[in-house]
Specification:
Elements: H1 7-20, H2 32-71, H3 76-85, H4 92-101, H5 103-113
Helix pairs in contact: 1-2, 2-4, 4-5
């Protein structure tokens, strides 16, 4: 009896991967073995960077808060300590937005905890 191969499923899988490779440069977009490796690597990077994005944004928020705090005569760590003891529950995302786009509101928050 000849070996049975599920060609329908194989074709569907290849089609799905080749669709993901659309827009890639050179042979990565139309050669199965190259595209498969490129997609695998790309999905690995996507998984990793979804987590790194959170770290990068937190670091950016901290830099913005620090710049705003120093403009008002405090360091970042001093400001965060005073916010905690003053029971001001604003997260870093909101504080960074205030420091960048609404400096007068940020100054009011700093003056409240000073």
């Amino acid at each position: 009896m000849p070996r049975s191969v599920n060609a329908v499923a194989s074709r569907a899988h290849r089609k799905k991967v080749m669709k993901l490779a659309k827009g890639f440069f050179g042979r990565k977009k139309n050669v199965w073995t190259v595209a498969k490796n490129a997609i695998e690597k790309g999905l690995t990077y996507a998984y990793r960077d979804r987590r790194q994005k959170k770290r990068n944004f937190r670091a950016l928020w901290i830099q913005r808060i620090n710049a705003g705090a120093r403009a008002n005569g405090l360091s970042y760590s001093q400001l965060m300590g005073k916010l905690k003891t003053g029971n001001v529950d604003l997260n870093r995302k909101v504080l960074a937005d205030l420091a960048m786009n609404h400096p007068e509101a940020f100054k009011a928050v700093v003056d409240k905890v000073k």
